[in-house]
Design brief:
225 residues; mainly alpha
Length: 225
């Protein structure tokens, strides 16, 4: 979501990120993508390393033996070297709220450090720091709420992106954000519907995530930029 939001700002509202030169846009997006996506992804994968190793074993057996994924899982689980004393490996999808807390804590720390770099070290335009700080606050709140209740982080992320862009469109009149806003509205509907369709959340969790994401992101831009 940060990469998507900043890509929209850089290419559709360059006035909002001045005095950043156009030649630096791609380099900056690469840095943002690495700090806010690649590093958290690696961390979550390492946290779930047991599942990663298990998944690799299943895939290797599937292609070596030319059998289905489910058959490969059954073979691995029934093999003599599979230790039944340990619980089944946790999925990277983190279906339960209990599985989400620790990864969310790590992601909050990453976004906090990223915000610090943009605000205190690299001295970028204030809009970069405000967006990253508000995302950090959103993830922190999601982490706290997730301890007791499985709020939808997906809804918070996509509707939060919509909130950022809507607020920027109000703040900077000279923009070309109509199509990005329409695309984000459609994408928000698809993401929220998918969470319900997959039975990963109920409607209250989806709506609460959307409200949290939109409130923090829209308010941060509208009041602090």
């Amino acid at each position: 979501m940060p990469t998507l939001v900043f890509a929209i700002l850089l290419y559709f509202v360059p006035l909002a990120v001045k005095p950043l030169p156009d030649s630096a846009f791609l380099q900056l997006l690469t840095i943002i993508f690495f700090l806010t996506y690649v590093l958290p992804l690696i961390s979550v994968s390492l946290i779930r390393l047991n599942y990663v190793v298990y998944f690799i074993r299943v895939l290797r057996l599937k292609y070596v033996k030319n059998i289905s994924y489910n058959d490969a899982v059954a073979v691995i689980n029934e093999s003599e070297d599979y230790n039944e004393e340990f619980p089944a490996p946790k999925s990277l999808w983190m279906k339960s709220k209990e599985e989400r807390v620790v990864p969310f804590v790590f992601i909050t720390i990453y976004y906090g450090l990223c915000s610090y770099l943009f605000l205190m070290q690299w001295k970028f335009n204030v809009i970069f720091s405000v967006i990253l700080l508000s995302i950090t606050i959103t993830i922190f709140l999601i982490t706290i709420i997730t301890i007791r209740w499985k709020i939808s982080a997906h809804s918070a992320g996509i509707v939060g992106a919509l909130g950022f862009i809507l607020a920027v469109s109000l703040k900077f009149q000279d923009n070309q954000l109509m199509y990005p806003i329409l695309a984000l509205i459609i994408l928000s509907g698809l993401v929220m519907s998918s969470r319900l369709q997959l039975n990963d959340h109920d409607s209250s969790q989806v709506y609460a995530g959307a409200l949290l994401g939109f409130g923090v992101s829209f308010g941060s831009i509208y009041f602090f930029v």
